[in-house]
Design the sequence.
């Protein structure tokens, strides 16, 4: 599933180019041009995809660091 | 006077919130600069969104849509929705984990530690700070312009030279003072709370403004019919604004790199470290694209409608109007002083929610990467560390305000150059987190290449004078037009990879600290 999510992100980036509606002035519902509507759909799809990414692509190693380490106040090496 | 009163009430509320949050201050340097890693999902979402959205999200998006059409949304909004969340997930969570584990507050601490080099910190310091300053100036100058524009005619005798509006220098001074007070007393916690309040304000006002303007333009019964009527006028008078026919396709693609700059913004880095846990990042990762859509889509539609909207047979916004004044003009003519005042407060909210984080971040960099790093850290008490951070915040605000008095208008064109510089450095942070073979020499090569390329192309653009500068590459018998960010980033990657591969790999001790999963 992890790979499906990352491939979907790449597909979304390709869809973002949507050259096919570049010169198309069709209005959806008489209000929103199709070129804008498609990008609003891309924003919605991004939110759905990132939701799935937080389930299937979450870096659990970050949480392991959290449970095994108390925060320090040192600022790195000098 | 109504507009000024609304702005005054808004600033007073902000001050009250900042001062209230200071009562939760725990008295340590870590609390002042990172809110003791206590920020939960909602505050992190709001502060990250408020920090990454500037005044451009409201007035700039409307103005660009007025000139370029609907393509502006794809150029900056939908791309940011994908790329910002990608950065939060791939970069932010890991940075938070290392920051929590090793006690970092600034980017420079992380890179010094990861690369085992003091020098890389010295090299990055002027670049990171230098790229933030124009960004800060944009905010301060814009805030002066917003208040000046909103108050024109209010004090005809006192401020005759500025047509009765509060002069820029005074307005910017008030804004700097308000931000300074709540950052000074509230630190990162005050900043996060203020950002949450300000982000709510500019999102709500954006939607209200959209509805009022749609109803004002349409002249029909009901919002839906008004929106249809407003768009129909554009279809008749300026059909090109409903497509991207005037936009270069390849340039549109190269613009996709610009939002990667979020991965290297020092103030975003510091916000990441405030998170309570890794899980805290989930809400911002998911909701950030939706928030961008909620702010940008209405503003872009208003900008497109502005090209053709009329009132009493006259165009509401003349075609030769000064850039970024389209939205205030529409509000002034269609809504009246109350909404005008609220909109001004909303624009100021968007500006100030970026300014506060940047001021605090630069103060933190000077405190940690200069004072605490080069002097014996143990000689300072927590109280003294907080004092140093506050002193630097005051100094940065004073210097920024002083520079803004020179009215360097060309600084607005610098915005995209700042982003391009940070995007050019993105391969460095990505490689530091995901590529074990990255060496300190590779990092030096990357940073120096970005600096060199950036300076060369910036000079080619007449030092920002040519706001429409694009890099031209001859290919396939034609000139490919692209944003300068593409050649800068490609050169950055090539330098980083090539030099890392021909130099000795980093020591095992470093790899064990930063790639523990692959060492076990």
Sequence:
């Amino acid at each position: 599933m992890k790979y499906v999510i990352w491939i979907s992100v790449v597909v979304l980036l390709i869809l973002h180019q949507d050259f096919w509606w570049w010169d198309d002035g069709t209005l959806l519902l008489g209000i929103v041009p199709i070129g804008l509507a498609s990008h609003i759909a891309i924003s919605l799809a991004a939110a759905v995809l990132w939701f799935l990414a937080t389930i299937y692509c979450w870096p659990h190693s970050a949480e392991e660091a959290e449970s095994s380490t108390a925060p320090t106040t040192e600022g790195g090496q000098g | 006077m109504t507009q000024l009163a609304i702005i005054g009430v808004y600033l007073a509320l902000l001050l009250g919130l900042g001062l209230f949050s200071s009562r939760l201050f725990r008295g340590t340097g870590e609390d002042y600069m990172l809110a003791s890693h206590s920020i939960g999902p909602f505050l992190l979402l709001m502060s990250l969104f408020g920090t990454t959205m500037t005044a451009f999200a409201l007035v700039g998006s409307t103005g660009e849509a007025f000139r370029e059409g609907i393509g502006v949304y794809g150029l900056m909004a939908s791309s940011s929705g994908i790329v910002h969340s990608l950065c939060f997930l791939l970069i932010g969570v890991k940075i938070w984990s290392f920051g929590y584990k090793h006690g970092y507050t600034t980017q420079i601490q992380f890179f010094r530690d990861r690369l085992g080099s003091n020098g890389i910190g010295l090299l990055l310091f002027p670049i990171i700070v230098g790229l933030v300053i124009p960004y800060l100036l944009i905010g301060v100058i814009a805030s002066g312009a917003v208040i000046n524009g909103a108050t024109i005619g209010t004090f005809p005798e006192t401020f005759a030279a500025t047509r009765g509006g509060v002069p820029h220098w005074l307005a910017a001074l008030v804004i700097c003072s308000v931000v300074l007070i709540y950052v000074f007393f509230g630190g990162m916690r005050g900043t996060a709370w203020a950002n949450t309040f300000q982000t709510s304000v500019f999102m709500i006002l954006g939607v209200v403004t959209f509805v009022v303007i749609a109803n004002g333009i349409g002249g029909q019964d009901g919002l839906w019919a008004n929106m249809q009527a407003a768009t129909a006028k554009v279809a008749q008078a300026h059909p090109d604004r409903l497509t991207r026919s005037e936009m270069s396709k390849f340039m549109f693609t190269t613009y996709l790199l610009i939002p990667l700059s979020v991965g290297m913004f020092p103030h975003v880095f510091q916000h990441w470290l405030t998170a309570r846990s890794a899980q805290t990042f989930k809400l911002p990762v998911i909701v950030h694209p939706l928030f961008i859509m909620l702010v940008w889509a209405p503003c872009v539609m208003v900008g497109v409608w502005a090209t053709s909207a009329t009132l009493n047979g006259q165009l509401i916004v003349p075609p030769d109007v000064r850039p970024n004044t389209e939205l205030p003009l529409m509000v002034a003519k269609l809504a009246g002083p109350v909404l005008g005042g609220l909109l001004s407060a909303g624009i100021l909210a968007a500006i100030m929610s970026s300014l506060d984080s940047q001021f605090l971040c630069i103060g933190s960099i000077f405190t940690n990467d200069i004072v605490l790093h080069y002097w014996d850290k143990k000689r300072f008490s927590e109280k003294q560390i907080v004092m140093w951070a506050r002193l630097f915040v005051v100094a940065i605000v004073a210097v920024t305000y002083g520079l803004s008095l020179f009215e360097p208008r060309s600084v607005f064109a610098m915005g995209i150059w700042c982003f391009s510089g940070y995007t050019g450095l993105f391969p460095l942070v990505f490689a530091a987190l995901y590529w074990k073979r990255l060496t300190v020499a590779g990092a030096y090569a990357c940073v120096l290449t970005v600096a060199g390329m950036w300076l060369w192309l910036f000079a080619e653009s007449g030092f920002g004078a040519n706001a429409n500068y694009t890099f031209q590459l001859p290919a396939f018998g034609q000139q490919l037009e692209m944003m300068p960010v593409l050649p800068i980033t490609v050169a950055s990657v090539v330098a980083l990879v090539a030099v890392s591969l021909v130099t000795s790999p980093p020591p095992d001790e470093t790899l064990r600290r930063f790639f523990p999963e692959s060492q076990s």
Observations:
- Chain B touches chain A through 71 residues (CB under 8 Å).
- Chain B has one domain: 1-405+414-514.
- Chain B has 20 helices and four strands.
- Residues 1-405+414-514 of chain B form a domain with the Sodium/glucose cotransporter fold (CATH 1.20.1730.10).
